[in-house]
Amino acid sequence: MANAMMEEFEALLQESFEIDTPEEGSVVKGKVIAIEAGQAIIDVGYKMEGRVELKEFANPGEAPEIAVGDEVEVFLRSAENARGEAVISREMARREEAWDRLEKAYADDARVDGAIFGRVKGGFTVDLGGAVAFLPGSQVDVRPVRDAGPLMGLKQPFQILKMDRRRGNIVVSRRAILEESRAEQRAEVIGNLTEGQAVEGVVKNITEYGAFVDLGGVDGLLHVTDMAWRRVNHPSEILAIGETVKVQVIKINKDTHRISLGMKQLQADPWDSVASKYPLESVHTGRVTNITDYGAFVELEPGVEGLVHVSEMSWTKKNVHPGKIVSTSQEVEVMVLEIDESKRRVSLGLKQCMRNPWEVFAETHPEGTVVEGEVKNITEFGLFIGLEGDIDGMVHLSDLTWEGRGEDVIGEYNKGDIVKAVVSEVDVEKERISLSVKAVDGDPFAEAIGGVKRGSVITVEVTAIEEGGIEVEYEGMKSFIRRSDLSRDRADQRPERFSVGDKVDVRVTNVDNKSRRLGLSIKAREIAEEKEAVEQFGSSDSGASLGDILGAALKGNE
After folding, report:
1. Which residues make Cβ contacts (< 8 Å) with residue 514, sequence separation at least 6?
2. Which of 160, 274, 290, 490 is deepest in the core (most CB within 10 A)?
3. PANTHER family, alphabetically (predicted)?
4. What gap in Å lies between CA 331 and CA 324, rounded to an integer?
5. CB burial of residue 197 (10 Å; 0-12, 13-18, 19+)
6. Tell me: the pLDDT tens digits for 18-63?
7. CA torsion through residues 117, 119, 121, 122, sign
């Protein structure tokens, strides 16, 4: 009996030796025998027990699921610690298991589930069911994510971009998953859309050039020019993010999946009635919407704008920027000059709604009117004087003075001087006003000669004796009598027979208003007197001598 028991004991002892004891650093199977104080007590056999935190049994983004009696795999780090317990880890076992699973998924290009649980430099850490991966910031979403808080701890699929088991590195992408599902969704939504179809969407983003509208998984671009018939400076004027809008599908690019949308296409085109509402030369009130170097755009009604070219803005301001004449949002009166329906253009005029200032000036300032104005500019050919109606008149050099040259006196004038002048001519068509400064006080030559005309006999005073003749004066006006005109007799054509201060009767042979000179002759006077005497006192058959006739004539004059 004793021998039998001894043999049985030896057999059991031998069997125990033959069973491999678990090796430290390996994964072993165990059984949960109790759960207490947030820990699971696990029997791994061989009379060894260990403790594992419950959180190590939780899948990414989920609560731990563990109960007494469950069989689990754990990693045996040490067979015995200071308390006589095995040191085991579910997390390390899961890691080994996860790497095997992830390597297979990476080889098959399959998605893996995980949860973002931490933030690191350049991105986030992701728990892939035991293995920790790096999620770069650029791979979180298709657009930059400002707040990743809502994504933390959430179980979701990821794509493995690269992995290195030896170094323990895994890089994953959430963006790749989103783009793939987005592409599938876009294809489905685009397949249900047709050009010309009216659909509803939500404004997702607003830019300088338009707005992106979500049509239910696919975005369409609503360009700023297709938002309204009127001018829209910025999309935010009529749209807000999150707003639901009704749009029309204008174009679908099947290759790029780009969709162009329009809002104004669902509204009546105001250009259908432009020709009837705005006949040529009709006057309307509009609002300045935009100012450029070449003119200003004026809105006649929402969707109908016309251009006032810079040349049609002012009668007087020719070389100024349109912004100096009108301002944005200003209400102005304009005249319709031209309509081009094919190009959707309206040409407008601003100055046509105001009277031509040259016409007004011509009516209110007939020739001979004395005006007063400031010297605006001085040129080599005259002065420009500012007049009523914001127009200028010009005083030519020849109209500055009666005596001497205009070139000699123009230097006496300065910009800003107030000058009086007489209106001499107004040319409305050429927009020119001619003025005369010298005419303000009248023409001294005309006043001096009075009723003197060609053929008149006047008395002059000798003021100078010269070799070629004599200088004389009449009412302050100087004239010169040449030697040949001093007498009908050649012997008396000597200047020296006259003295300064002599009074001499002369005949006017010419009145030159341009040179302001009188043509005078003693010889002409003598010839005229002889002719007159012959006519009065003699005839061809009377037999009287010339001396008798002249004597009688002179006696008659006495």
Report:
1. none
2. 160
3. 30S RIBOSOMAL PROTEIN S1 (PTHR10724), SMALL RIBOSOMAL SUBUNIT PROTEIN BS1C (PTHR10724:SF7)
4. 15
5. exposed
6. 445 566 656 677 777 777 776 777 776 766 777 766 666 666 556 6
7. positive
